[in-house]
Amino acid sequence: MENNISLKELEKKCRKNSYDCRCSEKILNKFSIYFTWLFSKTSITPNQITFLMIVNGIVGGVFLATGNYIHALMGSLFLYLFLVFDLVDGEVARYKKIFSRKGKFLDFVANDIVFASTFLGLSLGIFNGDCKLFGYALYHNPIVLITGMITIIFFAFFKLSSCYAKDIDENLQESFLKSDRVNGRIKSIVLKISNNVFYDTIVVMLVIVGVIFRLSQYILLFYAGGYILRYFVAVFLKMNNKNIK
């Protein structure tokens, strides 16, 4: 490995041409390259960075759970580091040319673990804090915890159904894009909402924004309702699509 490689040279070697999400490209990779540069000079492996990423996410969730605003801000910082390291492990893998199915699987597992940790911490923080939802106090309200668990459960349901029916998902999207009954602009908007608002990076970023602006309760409500609706809409479309036997 080149010990004196510049940041620009490193970017060319380890950056993808584009990321799955604009948020990653504009907000996160400006910082990730510095961590990648640092780790490129060590013997640390991409999988070890992924473990660091998991630790950051879990610690972030723990801080969110206290109900204290300063602690929640600290938790947001750890969640932000989780997002940055989510790019760093891939960048280091491309720079060091270390690739494996195990690493790819671990990356998926990391995102699922941190999603659960984030929403469990978020719901506990609202439960323990002084949040209000449309003027209604949520302090020690068990509905908050139920809402958090519903979000995690339907997130898991959606992931499982997509995992076992990936070919059906691809068929549905292809049918939707080819449909003449739906306006092209509407199709574009629907797909952007579906692919971006529920994209793992965007979800965590919105949680961070919600914490900073004391809107955590609204973020929790949005994703609880969103994941329920998304799951049942997906099931309905899969069961009623005539192109799927």
CATH class value: Mainly Alpha
Q: What is the 3D form?
A: globular
Largest sheet: 2 strands, antiparallel
- Please give the share of residues in helix: over 70%
How many angstroms does the end-to-end distance come to?
Answer: 52 Å
Q: CATH homologous superfamily - what is it?
A: CDP-alcohol phosphotransferase transmembrane (TM) domain
- Given as residue ranges, the uncertain stretches (5+ residues, pLDDT < 50) are none
> Going across the major beta sheet, what is the strand order?
1-2
Write the H/E string, N to C: HHHHHEEHHHHH
The third-level CATH topology is Four Helix Bundle (Hemerythrin (Met), subunit A)
Total count of strands = 2
Can you summarize this structure?
Helices cover 78% and strands 2% of the residues.
How would you describe this structure to a colleague?
It is a single chain. The protein is mostly helical. The chain has a single domain, classed as CDP-alcohol phosphotransferase transmembrane (TM) domain (Four Helix Bundle (Hemerythrin (Met), subunit A)). The chain is 78% helix and 2% strand. It contains 10 helices and 2 strands, in the order H-H-H-H-H-E-E-H-H-H-H-H. A two-stranded antiparallel sheet has the order 1-2. A hairpin with a 2-residue loop joins strand 1 and strand 2. The longest helix has 28 residues. The chain is globular, with a radius of gyration of 20 Å.
